[in-house]
Amino acid sequence: DAGVIQSPRHEVTEMGQEVTLRCKPISGHNSLFWYRQTMMRGLELLIYFNNNVPIDDSGMPEDRFSAKMPNASFSTLKIQPSEPRDSAVYFCASKIRDINEKLFFGSGTQLSVL
Amino acid sequence: RKEVEQDPGPFNVPEGATVAFNCTYSNSASQSFFWYRQDCRKEPKLLMSVYSSGNEDGRFTAQLNRASQYISLLIRDSKLSDSATYLCVVKVGGNTGKLIFGQGTTLQVKP
Q1: How many C-beta neighbours within 10 Å does residue A16 have?
Q2: Which residues is B70 bridged to in the sheet?
Q3: Are residues A108 and A91 in contact, defined by beta-carbon separation less than 8 angstroms?
Q4: B62 and B75 in contact (C-beta within 8 Å)?
Q5: Which residues on A lie below 8 Å from B33 (Cβ)?
Q6: Contact B63, B74 (CB under 8 A)
Q7: Closest CB from B32, B98, B101 relative to A43
Q8: Tell me, what's the pLDDT at A51?
């Protein structure tokens, strides 16, 4: 089992650029979550999907953020345009809905917006 | 008010000490509760679920008080390897519910 795979591991970009973060959940998992972690705010839920359908995106900071899950094995989180305050670690996590609540996290993407 | 609140610490304790962390949650309809552990620069991992009657896993004991809306984690005989951030997690919203994380409590166990 390869676990949740995120790419890239690190991203450094300039303000105003588009950033795309990618996630491959564990095969067979049907819930996928995007979190953002900063020292000030901790781990914040941005959006989550059940069976590829977005269920709650109330945590998405603003219209600059968008997320998609075109199929069960792939999701993206896009920031356009990026701003320095978006700098954080972005985690993707997956689980089997309703079976248990054990979330499996990817290693995260460290995003720095200069 | 945050949905899940924890004392960020850090808690600095000697090896062998017993240490307890508390967490409070604001949504009385919260259904499920967990403790996750996060090592420095790593992803969070499930430590244990928290059951209404309380539960134990080796040196770790979790308790839930629904009336007061708080959860606790007790670590006995702490080891150097217990040094980490401990995240309180609450599920809200029914079957399609979401998992809300507290900001975490940092534990440093010193020799």
Answers
A1: 10
A2: B24, B65
A3: yes
A4: no
A5: none
A6: yes
A7: B101
A8: 92
Closest Cα of chain B to A65: distance in Å? 19
Cα B48 from Cα B91, distance rounded (Å): 14
CB pairs A-B closer than 8 Å: 47
Whole-number Å distance between alpha carbons of A89 and A106 = 11
Give the CA distances from residue A75 to residues A86, A104, A111, B87, in Å, rounded to whole numbers and listed in that order: 19, 15, 17, 25
* Gap between the Cα atoms of B62 and B56, Å rounded: 6
Q: Tokens for B81?
A: 């390897």
What span, in angstroms and rounded, lies between the C-alpha atoms of A83 and A87?
8
pLDDT digits (tens, 9 = 90+) for A13-54: 999 999 999 999 999 998 999 999 998 889 999 999 999 999
Show residues of chain A in contact with B71, CB under 8 Å.
none
Q: What residues of B are in contact with residue A39 (Cβ under 8 Å)?
A: none
Q: In whole angstroms, how far apart are CA B10 and each of A78, B102, B105, B107?
A: 34, 15, 7, 6
Per-residue tokens: A91: 């985690």
- Which residue from A69, A45, A107 is spatially nearest to B99, judged by alpha carbons? A45
Quick: pLDDT tens for B18-58: 999 999 999 888 888 999 999 999 999 999 999 888 899 99
Of B43, B95, B104, the CB nearest to A105: B43
